[in-house]
């Protein structure tokens, strides 16, 4: 019935979206959901070009970055993805996901995301560790990153820092930008307080 997989997927997604009354949040995960799955690249992928053309504009498209688990996200890549999808992507961030190797637990701060990314995103979802308690630091530091992004949106004169700021830069208190190390220290402080509070509860 359909000349390509992309056209079939877009047709079905569009029909479901319309049948549900075009909800404000409706997400579509493409078969090519990161750069490493695109051939030869996101901007030259016939599949993504079709998805961008055929999918109704109110449907959000999920993207994980350069890889399934991306150590870095750059503004340049997101510009390329936005252009081919004809919409800002929703990042499904697998930075902390450990469902593929449950012997590992990721407890570091949220990092590797260039400053000023929020203005290039339609949304961001964090795929956490499978172990609930291990996600205090990931979620806490993501919140700190988010607040710093809100601050940079409120002060557009800081946008030029993106060109000179290294991903995961450890300075930040001086200029108001995000510092993974400082975010980690804040998270650890609050986590210890949370643990101590739980220890005082009856029956703990």
UniProtKB/TrEMBL annotation:
Stretches that traverse the bilayer: none
Domain GH84: 1-150
PROSITE patterns: GH84
Gene3D superfamilies (alphabetical): Glycosidases
Record GO biological process: glycoprotein metabolic process
GO molecular function: beta-N-acetylglucosaminidase activity
Pfam family, one: NAGidase
Protein name per its UniProtKB record: OGA GlcNAcase
Lineage of the organism: Eukaryota, Metazoa, Chordata, Craniata, Vertebrata
């Amino acid at each position: 019935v359909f000349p390509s997989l992309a056209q079939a997927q877009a047709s079905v997604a569009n029909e479901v979206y319309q049948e549900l009354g075009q909800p404000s949040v409706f997400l579509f995960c493409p078969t090519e959901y990161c750069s490493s799955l695109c051939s030869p690249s996101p901007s030259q992928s016939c599949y993504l070009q079709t998805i961008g053309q055929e999918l109704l504009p109110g449907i959000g498209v999920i993207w994980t970055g350069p890889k399934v688990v991306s150590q870095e996200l750059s503004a340049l890549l997101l510009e390329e993805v936005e252009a081919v999808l004809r919409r800002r992507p929703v990042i499904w961030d697998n930075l902390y996901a450990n469902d593929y190797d449950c012997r590992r637990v990721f407890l570091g701060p949220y990092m590797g995301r260039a400053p000023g990314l929020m203005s290039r995103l339609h949304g961001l979802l964090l795929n956490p560790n499978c172990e609930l308690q291990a996600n205090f630091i990931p979620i806490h530091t993501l919140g700190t990153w988010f607040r710093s992004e809100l601050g940079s949106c409120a002060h557009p004169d800081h946008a030029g820092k993106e060109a000179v700021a290294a991903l995961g830069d450890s300075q930040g208190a001086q200029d108001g930008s995000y510092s993974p190390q400082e975010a980690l220290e804040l998270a650890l402080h609050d986590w210890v307080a949370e643990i101590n509070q739980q220890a005082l509860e009856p029956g703990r």
